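Fold this sequence, please.
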Amino acid sequence: MNTQFRYYFLPLAMLLFLAAGCGTKEARKIPTGEGTMITGAELTPLLSDNTISIYEYGETAVIEMYGNGKMYAVKTKNEKNEGAWSTDNDRLCLQFRRWGFGDKICYDVFRKGEQYNLYTDSGLKSSYFTIAKGVKRGPTGKSAAGARKQPGKTTATASPDVMVEQAAPVSTPSIQETYQTSSPQAASRDLGMIYRGMSQNCPGCNLQGVDLGEASLMRANLAGANLSNAKLTRANLKWANLKGANLTGADLSGANLAGADLAGANLERANLTGANLEQTNLRGATIDGAIGLDLEKAIR
C-alpha cells in the first residue's frame, strides 16, 4: 500500500464507518433489574389468542388479545372496553375505544419470571401483566353466547354507554356509541366527567389543556402525562404520581400536591400560587419561570 493511498483511503474509510454508526437506531435504556426485553417478533405469538391481566395502580384489567389485532377488556362488571393492539419498533401498543382518551400508547416490555413489566417512552414503569393461555370469546373476539340470542332484540352491555344490537338473521353483535345529550353545556359537563375519570389512572396520556379544576385525583397515576396548560386549580393531587409529567404552563394554584411525586416533571411557567407542596418530591424537576413556587417544605 503506497503512502498516498494510506493518506486518502484510510481517513475516508474511518469517516464512512462513523457515519454508518450515526445512522443506527439508538438502543433504549434497559431498566436495571427488570429482566429481559421482549421484541416485537416475540410479543406477537406470545399474546395472540391469549389473555393478559394488567395490574396498574391498584386496579386489574383482564384483556383478551386476539390474533386479528383486536382486544376485549374487562375491569369490573360495569366497566368493559374494546380496542386494538399491535407491535411497533419492538414495543407493545394498546389503543382502547374509551380508556386513555382513545390514545394509542406504546410500551417497552421486559420479562421477569412470569411477570411482564411495561415502560412508557419516558422510561417510567406504568404497570405489569401476566399471561394466561387462550381466550373465552374465540380467536376473533366474537362471543359465542351472544350469537345464540334471539334475533331482533337489543340488549345493553354492562357498560352504560354501549349498546349491542342483534339484527335478523342472527349476526355478529355490533357495538355502537350512544349519545344522550345535544346541548353544548351538557356535552361540556360530560366531557369534564370523562376527563376526571380517566385522569385517575392514565400514565403517558395526552391531557393538554384539559379542565381538571377541583378534581379529586388523590393517588392518581399520571406519570409521563402531558398536562401542559391544564387547569388544575384547587385539585387534590395528594400522593399522586406525576413523575416526568409535562406541566408547562399548567395552573396549579391552590392545588394540594402534598406527598406527590413530581421527580423529573416539567413545571416551566406553571402557576403554583398557594399550592401545598409539603413533602412533594421535586428532585430533577424543571421549575424555570414557575409562579408562586414555595420550596420550603418540598423535597429537592
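The domain at 180-300 is CATH 2.160.20.80 (Pectate Lyase C-like). Confidence is low (pLDDT under 50) at residues 5-27, 144-191.
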